[in-house]
Design a protein that fits this description.
By secondary structure, the chain is an all-alpha fold. The chain has 4 helices and no strands. It has one domain.
Amino acid sequence: MDPRTDKLVRRTTMVATITASYFLLTADYGPQPNFLDPIKDALLSAERSVKGFVFGQDKKVQDETSKLPSTAAEKHP
């Protein structure tokens, strides 16, 4: 295979894998706590941080994040 084509295929595969993993990890699995909650919380926190860095922090977003529960036990009593 041509080296440029091989490089394109490898990059496309990596992007597709990362995208699929993100959607699977952030999917809603129902109200019950599960083992993916800490990973999901970390991903959502990173997403909020990146959005805040790129688009700037909103006062409304800051108020909402201070009210969010920090653990799965608090979210699902």
